[in-house]
Amino acid sequence: MQSNNQRVLAYYFPQYHSIPENDVVFGTGFNDWELFKNNTNIRLKSCKFPIEPPTGLGFYDPQNIDVRIKQASLAKKYGIDGFIYYHYWLENKAVMDTVLNNLLEDNQPDMPFCLCFANQSWKHCYGRDTNFKKFHSDGTTFRQLYDNPKDHAQYLQRVFNHKNYIRINNLPVLFLYILNSTVLSYIIRVIEELKQYNIDNIYLIANTSWCCLQEYKNAQHERMPDAYSPFIAHGKLDKLPDSLSSLPHVYSGYMGWNVIPRHPNSTHLVDFSPDDITKNTCKDLLLMKYDTKSPQIYAIFAWNEWAEGAIIEPNSIYGEDLGNAIKKARDIVEYITTNSEIVNTTIEYGYLDKFIDITRAAYFNCMKNSRSDSDSKWSIYIPKGDINRSILFGDPLIGVHKVVKVSRNGSVAIYDETQDIDIPIL
Predict the structure, then answer these.
(1) pTM recorded for the entire structure
(2) Do 277 and 359 sit in the same domain of this protein?
(3) Of residues 298, 187, 203, the one with CA closest to residue 249
């Protein structure tokens, strides 16, 4: 973990092995790796594929302890402090939980973790022929039910009590995917059942996106979440509901989006380069650091959502560069928030005695990687021209030629609109 108090966590999809529920729907032995071996899907060439050891993990099975040990080693190398495992509770029982159960038994990967309650009924068939008699009348294959909090609490307490389980304010953290009044009432009942295991409460973090909040009523409920965390990949919100907007913000990012393995006709693709990941992560971590209400947890989608194009693991397009990009972002943020020369640098924009402080805005909007064959050098790059700077920082004096003033350790440099500015960081 970095020396500051920020924790970077990555969502972890605990599949890539067969489970009884998928066997019933897709045929015996199915797992998501099969989607990458579909010769009829000609668009797969746009997707990231796993690469083989020693650099990558290949088409792995995370039930294997050696795979999970290697995942922990890679995660630590990339500046990932822990995982957020998806937790499925369908038809009133745990589903796809073998990897989690193995972790509880063998403590691998030996690193902090928590759960995201992926409380959504399953209905996907991924275009395959399916025996529809196995579906429920509402079109789902396995239903998310909320009528057995006792068994659910008994299952959760074993996880919450693990030595590596993440806590905030000494409460076990639980991310929640779908938020509505039914779910919140159910959470109250689960917590009541948890009390018999000496767990008096949980720290509930609501995912927020168009998808997550479709059924949410904007009101004060008996049990509100303790914080919210945008799930950007699943539909960014223009505005957060008022009843959630005052909650602490658990910042989040995502590695991309490409569901062609599951849905070959999909046209919505997002492919972030390693430099994009570094810049996006830097901005988010700085915003989080300046937010005194934030729990200082950053949630990235995702470590290994291969069939959704959101991955940190080594892959066929970028190798290890995506993981290394996160580590680089963490190094930059630590450097600019602890190095005395950088900390004491102020960047202002204006004219005569009318200046605005743009230091933070410059960090957020002007990161640049001056890459060479052998190295990468990150800096704050502010382009010349009043129009460019007005777009970046606003225009405090319309129609007046302005300058950028950089003050560092008692010295001041003035740059007019004809000069590019390049301030080295790391």
Answers:
(1) 0.93
(2) no
(3) 298
